[in-house]
């Protein structure tokens, strides 16, 4: 079954029709896993595509928990030749009416004319002011279909309208073509060596995030059994991830660094799981903490986890998702370098993030004033290739052969990428450039400081707090003692003395919808002398 000339639609429909495997979804309410053959998901997707065509939608918005109709809405948009934008539901404590208003405004900014959703989101979005029509996806994605899809549906030049994280600035929407998305999924699948009948994927990553969406679509394209849990189920009980891996006998999984770090740190809570089938555990979406990632592998080895399965990787929305990914079996490779400090040099370990996937290229563009890393040519990471975006919504088009400056700083080791930090986040103290990630890692080791809730920034002379300032979520009684220890540890291990340490209550630091800390927002608050606030 080949649909028109849309390469992504054709590849997905052919694979899903031929697959004898299932998409397995966790029903949050009942706690049961429900199996849906990929062929059923395809039939539902075709029904959605037909309704999208009848509605003459310009682009489609999708929002809600990942049930089978939700997944069908995404694939159905591809089959209909329309771009799809997936956005998150409201965070806990958010006002539903304000969330609905903001969500419809974001959809409108991406050119979305029809929104598909279900559950409580449906009512909130329908009563909110917005230009998009809101539909119940469960009425569009029925399981039965006998007729072929109308071949007159447009092929489309946009497949995904992906929001960027906005962790270092204003979020933007990326336009990804069907060719670019297919190239990235194919390149990632080839690097991992996905094999139908052998591999099983398991993920709880949000489908509004590029890593979560790519994981799901890579499974669909390869026709492998794929288990998908709602992100909210992981958030409610993070250690259930290991139970899901055990129950599914998953060979492939993916998560951000914080998940590996949390489980490694509190591994004593883990009992009675079997991780011996996991051969590839992608770590991406945020900076990799080498010590905590290694701790995860060591702690989980008693449950059969192989250290060679660790796969620290690099990607971004502008390249669909994946850029560099290690070979299966490589495990956590690190590069130890000497970094200049006030007292001479200090050794640092960085994760090696693999080589570029097929179709992508990476180079380092040297820049003046980058951090002092002895023996390495540090510069801005630039990428190009077949997975690249067509451009930002409302912006100029980007040629796939044009080198794209990522804003990340890094270097190459035998052709493999190492990322040190973000160019915008580089801190200059007394004429020396410092990567904030190392300061944040040291600060997070102080008792009472929350892991993954530390931001180190450099503030200007005109700010209320000039110099190196560290903001951290703190849960403890002795703030003064913790503050003193934090300053001492950073001074000893990083060779620089913070000018101020600001402790805030847990949950106070602003984050993006995917959970990344909004560093520039923290910096602006600290420069103004105000306490950072969640958004």
TrEMBL record:
One of the Pfam families matching this protein, by short name: AMP-binding_C
Sequence ranges assigned to domain AMP-binding enzyme C-terminal in this UniProt record: 438-516
GO molecular function annotations of the record: adenylyltransferase activity; ligase activity
One annotated GO biological process: fatty acid biosynthetic process
Gene Ontology CC terms: plasma membrane
Keywords recorded for this protein, A-Z: Ligase
Residue span, AMP-dependent synthetase/ligase domain: 27-392
Keyword RNA-binding tagged: no
Keyword Manganese applies: no
SUPFAM superfamilies (alphabetical): Acetyl-CoA synthetase-like
PANTHER family: DISCO-INTERACTING PROTEIN 2, DISCO-INTERACTING PROTEIN 2 DIP2 -RELATED
Family classification: Belongs to the ATP-dependent AMP-binding enzyme family.
Name of the protein in question: Long-chain-fatty-acid--ACP ligase
Source organism per UniProt: Mycolicibacterium monacense
């Amino acid at each position: 079954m080949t649909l028109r000339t849309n390469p992504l639609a054709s590849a997905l429909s052919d694979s899903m029709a031929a697959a004898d495997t299932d998409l397995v979804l966790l029903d949050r309410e009942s706690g049961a896993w429900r199996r849906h053959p990929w062929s059923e998901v395809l039939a539902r997707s075709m029904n959605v595509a037909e309704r999208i065509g009848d509605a003459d939608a310009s682009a489609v918005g999708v929002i809600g928990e990942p049930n089978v109709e939700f997944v069908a809405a995404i694939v159905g948009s591809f089959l209909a030749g329309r771009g799809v934008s997936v956005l998150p539901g409201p965070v806990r404590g958010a006002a539903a009416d304000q969330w609905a208003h903001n969500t419809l405004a974001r959809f409108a900014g991406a050119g979305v004319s029809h929104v598909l959703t279900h559950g409580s989101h449906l009512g909130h979005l329908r009563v909110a002011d917005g230009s998009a029509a809101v539909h119940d996806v469960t009425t569009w994605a029925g399981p039965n279909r006998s007729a072929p899809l109308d071949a007159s549906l447009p092929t489309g030049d946009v497949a995904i309208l992906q929001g960027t994280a906005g962790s270092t600035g204003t979020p933007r929407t990326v336009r990804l073509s069907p060719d670019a998305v297919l190239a990235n999924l194919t390149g990632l699948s080839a690097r991992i060596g996905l094999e139908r009948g052998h591999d099983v994927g398991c993920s709880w990553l949000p489908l509004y995030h590029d890593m979560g969406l790519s994981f799901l679509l890579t499974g669909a394209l390869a026709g492998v059994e794929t288990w998908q849990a709602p992100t909210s189920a992981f958030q409610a009980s993070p250690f259930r991830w290991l139970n899901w891996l055990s129950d599914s006998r998953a060979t492939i999984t993916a998560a951000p660094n914080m998940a590996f770090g949390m489980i490694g740190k509190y591994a004593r809570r883990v009992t009675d799981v079997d991780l011996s089938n996991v051969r590839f555990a992608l770590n991406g979406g945020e900076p990799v903490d080498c010590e905590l990632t290694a701790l995860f592998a060591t702690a989980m080895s008693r449950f059969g986890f192989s250290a060679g399965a660790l796969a620290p990787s690099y990607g971004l929305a502008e390249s669909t998702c994946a850029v560099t990914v290690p070979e299966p079996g490589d495990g956590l490779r690190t590069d130890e370098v000497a970094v200049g400090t006030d007292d001479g040099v200090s050794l640092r370990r960085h994760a090696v993030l693999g080589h570029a996937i097929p179709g992508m290229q990476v180079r380092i563009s040297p820049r003046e004033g980058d951090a002092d890393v002895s023996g390495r040519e540090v510069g801005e990471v630039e990428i190009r290739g077949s997975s690249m975006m067509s451009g930002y919504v409302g912006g100029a088009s980007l040629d796939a052969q044009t080198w794209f400056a990522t804003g990340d700083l890094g270097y190459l080791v035998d052709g493999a990428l190492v990322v040190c930090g973000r160019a915008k986040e580089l801190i200059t103290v007394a004429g020396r450039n410092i990567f904030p990630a190392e300061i944040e890692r040291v600060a997070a080791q102080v008792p009472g400081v929350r892991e993954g809730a530390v931001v180190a920034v450099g503030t200007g002379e005109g700010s209320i707090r000039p110099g190196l300032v560290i903001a951290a979520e703190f849960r403890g009684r002795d703030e003064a003692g913790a503050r003193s220890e934090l300053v001492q540890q950073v001074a000893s291990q990083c060779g620089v003395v913070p000018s101020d340490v600001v402790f805030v209550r847990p949950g106070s630091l602003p984050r993006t919808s995917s959970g990344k800390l909004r560093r520039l927002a923290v910096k602006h608050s600290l420069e103004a002398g105000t306490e950072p606030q969640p958004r």
